[in-house]
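Writing this down once: the sequence line spells out the residues, with the fold written below as integer tokens. I am pasting one below:
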Amino acid sequence: MSAAMSFSDFFSQTPPDTVRYIQTVVDYLTNHCHAKCYIVGGAVRDRLLGRRCQDYDIECFDISVDAFEKAMMHLGAEGVGKSFFVYKFHHLDISLPRKETKVDKGHKGFRVMLAGSEKEASKRRDFTINALMYDIKKEQILDFWNGLADLRQKLLRVVDEKSFAEDSLRVLRAMQFAARLGFKVEKTSCRLCQNISLDDLPKERIFLEFEKMFKGAHLHYGLYYLYALGIAKKLFNETLDRKTFIAWSKELQRAQPYFQDALRPYYFLFIARSYLKTDIGKMLELIGAPKHYHRQISRKPLLPSKADVKFILHTALKDGIINYPGNYNPCIISLAKKLKVWKKPFSPKITANMLLEEGFSGKELGEELAKRIEREIAFYAKKGI
């Protein structure tokens, strides 16, 4: 149930300032309030996976609500979810252990109560790998649900089926964790997800989970569970045949090494345009994507079967190809760099001012400018690189 891990090892990849904040909180709560403090949730998972963690959650046991609130006041922590017993100290979340019961419809329809033990508190977590706890003083990992084994096997397994099914957002969390971690969803957990309705989720919460998936390092896993968990069918009535899935998955795997960090959130959806039955603009609306997604995806040209000079120069008229979400193709990258439009837009020799001097104006000026730019692009295409 527990495994030793020294303080210095656990926090070896943590910024010194963060370690100092954690130490300040833990020292005060243990020395003055006799509380037990644990690091909980994703920070424990990420540390065991060797991933860098930015956000830490500290859960405090064996302390009354009054004593906890006084301690938070003393530390200068800010209450960000007082009904959930959650406070913020710098970028740490400090909370009392809790359990939740579904009492009404929607993602806010929960009654929150204090949990009586570490095991009871960890039971509310979605997956076993997120239910691990690190005892800061005893320097031990607490594992009540075999999360360490699932971590080694790269499995997402539901902790408690009843509480999991009460929060439909967790179905989307399964998808985005698979894409971020490269983990598989355990079969029973997969079937559970398939049977959970997503009708009660507001678009803003849907999008937050999708965006985490879009930024994942294993997008083909995200794609698989988008359909395998029934998410695509429930949200935008999409199904996927095996042939299309294989082609889409292979394109994602080939493309990902060439992704530019600044455009990382957009690639999945840009590639999806070639495979979805649903119009991409409609899909963006259904998942609540902000306007910049429409600008980056819906309004950009799709990749042709064979990119040539004409396509590259046309696409680079307003911006360098480095800002085009179809730039994951090695041929596109090579051609854009040779044409010197990778980082900057293509600047035609002809300008609107030159045509004004020739006597063009109004609509005729725009038409003539487009015609001459097209002629210039055709010249470069014929000339070759």
